[in-house]
Each structure stands twice: as C-alpha cells, then as structure tokens.
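Feature request disguised as a bug report, sorry. It would help if multi-protein outputs had a clear separator. Right now it looks like this:
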Amino acid sequence: MNPILEAMKTRRSIRKFKPDMPEREAIEQIIEAGRYAASGKGAQATITLAITNKETRDRLMTANARALGHEGIDPFYGAPVILVVLRDKSFFTSIYDGSLVMGNMMLAAHALGLGSIWIHRAKEEFEQPEWQALLKDLGIEGEWEGVGNLALGYIEGEPPKAAPRKDGRVFFVD
C-alpha cells in the first residue's frame, strides 16, 4: 500500500506519552509538513508555536485544563512538546487552513515514529492576556486565534487499534 495512505489508516490519537524530548530535527520536520498544508488562495495564514520549554508547556497545560473546567489534570497526556497552530483572524479560510496544518503534522509525527493528539481549547487559551503577551513578546503582530494544540512525543505503551469505520458515510454521485 502507498506509504501515505498507510499512515492515514494507521495513525491514532495517543493519550500516554513518555517524558523524553523528541529530537529537534523531528520536531522541525513535523512543523515543515504543517507549513506545506493546503491553504485558501495560497495565503498561508497560519503560524505554529513550538513549545518545548517545560515551564511554558506546564503553564499552557494549566490554562487548557482551566478552559476545560478540570483544573489539576494534564490535558496534554504528559507530552513534552506542544505545537500550537494559530490562524490569522482576518483571513476567511484560515480556520480550515489551520485544521489542515494540524492534520499534516499528525501524519508527519506518525511517519516519524512519534505520537500525537489534537487537543482543543487553543482558542480559549490565546484569548487570555498571558498568551497574547507571549505572541507580542515573540514579535507576532495582528489578530491571531488558536486552532489547536498538537501534543507530541514518544508513545508510552502500545498505540490503540483503529475503531471500525462506520458504514453509510460515502455517497457517489455519478
């Protein structure tokens, strides 16, 4: 089977990570895959923050848990790396473009032997002054909204098996 199609069929969301930091080169390759996602009118109206600093990761974890309404848990399942995809709020397809970035990065992580899971609430996190300040500190200007957090790392244990695909979800119009 084609390796890309195989990766699509075998990638799973991972909910238990080892604390070991993946190699920087692998993180960069995953981000690069996201940069090559399709985008409306080729605008590339998304950015990715690579959070590898443990203190910053833990502050983001706390903000995410608070937004979830479950303080004191780790919604990132112990992953040492969080890739945050943000969209330019002024561009009309950027929410969809950001979703494609997330998908490309999840597939790239799987192809490189790493696990990942899309964690929501990036929108709520980056509405907070602390995270708006981080963007400003990084020199990022404009109106940016969170699309998703990609928790990334080495898989702890065995990856889950795929659930059976539901019937009745495809219709051909010939």
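(second protein starts here, but nothing in the output says so)
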Amino acid sequence: MTKIACHPSDEMLASYAAGEIDGGLAVMISAHLEFCPHCRAKLAKYEEQYATQAFVSAAPDNHGDVNLDDMLEQIMANDSIPEKSVESLLNAPADTHIEVASQQFTLPQILQGQQQKIGPWSRLPGKIQRAKVSSASSSKMNLIYMDESSALPEHTHQGNEITLVLAGSFSDEAGTYHPGDFVIQDSQHRHSPRTEAGKDCLCLTLLDAPLHFTSGFASLLNPFSQLFFR
C-alpha cells in the first residue's frame, strides 16, 4: 500500500474525538481513518485524554461522592463513535459498493448502506462525473469520479476544499495523491487536478464555497461556478 502523505490536522482529530465537529467533516475524517493507522493511533490518544478528563471532572470533592451515572454520561458524550444497537447493525442494508463508468468501487464504511443519500451521477467538463452526497453539513459533499486522462481546469478556492482519495490516483502541481490522502486546499492554493492515461480516480470531496477558475478560457466558467457547488 502506498504511504499516505496527507492527513487531517491535529485540531481536526481532537475535535472529532470530542464530538465537536461539523457533520460533513466527521464523515471525511471517518473515511480517512479506514485507510490510516497513523491517524487512528492519534485519535486513540485524544479519546484517552478526553476519557481521563471526564473521570477527573467527575471525581469526588470534599462535599460528596462520585455520581457514577453522571460519570458514564460524560464519557459517552466524549465518545466519537455514535451508539448503534446490535439489532440496527445486523439489519443494516448490505450496499457496500457504488457503480460508475461500468466499474464498482467499495464505499467507505460510513457511507455503506446509505445509497439513498447518494444522488445520481452527472457529468462535468473534463471527463469528470459527480454524485452529490447528503450530509449534516452546510458544506457540499460529493463523490467525484475522474476518468483516465481527465482534468479539471486550473482553479483556486473561495473557501476550503477537502479531497479524500478513495481509489486510484490523481495529480496536481503539488504532487500525486493516492488512496487515503486527505488533501486540504484553500484560497492560497491554485491547482489543476488530472489523471494519467490508463488511470482513473474516485474521490470524496467537501467544499464550503464555489471554485474560482483562473486559467484563460476556463475563467469564463466562473459565472457558472455554482454548478460545482450544489
């Protein structure tokens, strides 16, 4: 497996462990954790810290005893993994894959069985397809499929864009990204994502503002940039 080079920030992981994070970003981090033992180890340390803090805050003072019910409630409040009953897990739908361009790709576990939240595929310029993913977020989440020898015109960002590679690879001016890479872009970045001949790529993206196209003819697309932010 190719080594993962791009990760969520420590601040993101700490907020995820504390359960204090935007729903869309939580999905992105959860999917990244499936690929990344490095971030899973970091997350475990943050969860341990929060559990310790919960015990300390519930420790008895000179005026009374520990309320074990309150202690348990605080620990559960700091658990980053939502509670699910055994019955709900056993009865969960078995949809684990998504199909695009006559290919099947395995979905991140957090999206498996959630096909009703994934919209139909639509075509974008540059041999690219997109499927909207509904999430509890003001940001826009999409599955993006880049066919071989495809490219998105050079652009920057009016806000933040997070791209998680799920399968295949793509490149831009900064390098090449592989499964598990958690790529964060903002208004300081300008790039043109592309794939090579014979290589496609499936990504999960989170965007909180429209793109801004910067190169020549592509800049004429800016009045329509909301098409990339739906």
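Even a blank line would do. Unrelated, but nice: The two ends are 34 Å apart (CA to CA).
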